[in-house]
Amino acid sequence: IRDMREKNLRLELADVKDNIITSDEAVEKEFKIRKPYFKDNIITSDEVVEKEFKIRKPYFKIVLTPSQRSQPLRVPKVIKNALVAMIAVCEYKSFGELSAVKDELNDFQELFKKNLNYEFVHNEELYIDAKKIEDFTDNVAKQLGENKNQYDAL
Question: pLDDT tens, 89-109?
Fold first, then answer.
């Protein structure tokens, strides 16, 4: 599968005449044409399948073809009600004070809360230790677990 993606290939179902089958109706039609060759429409063992393949041509085959699109089809998801959780830390022992954090916090808050209308939560204290970060993330996890606001993204 990975090789197929990297080489931009896809699998297609074709009938014995190499016509690509594009619908369920075409599959049903092919089976109706060949139905008389089935015995009671029941396959009871692997041996029956093997015997059928030896006696008759297969009904379908799998064809590997180049994909028409260069990227896999992706369906965009519209996020309407997200919870944005941010941990802002102004000072690290090894880095000293990070003065821009306050401005960045305001910028993110404006973007997510005011512009996108998402719920935005952050730690109240910008000088915070590991225990307070853990408490903050526990509270966010609890809020997500309850999901009273029916968030569709985090």
Answer: 877 666 667 777 888 888 888
67: tokens are: 């994909």
pLDDT digits 0-9 by tens, 73-92: 556 677 888 888 888 887 76
Phi, psi (5° rounding) for residue 91?
-145, 130
pTM of the predicted structure, to 2 decimals: 0.45
- Residue type at 114 in one-letter notation: K
Place of tokens 């369920």: 24
How far apart CA 126 and CA 88 sit, in angstroms, is: 6
Could you tell me the two tokens for 126? Answer: 């910008």
d(Cα 110, Cα 105) in Å, to the nearest integer? 9
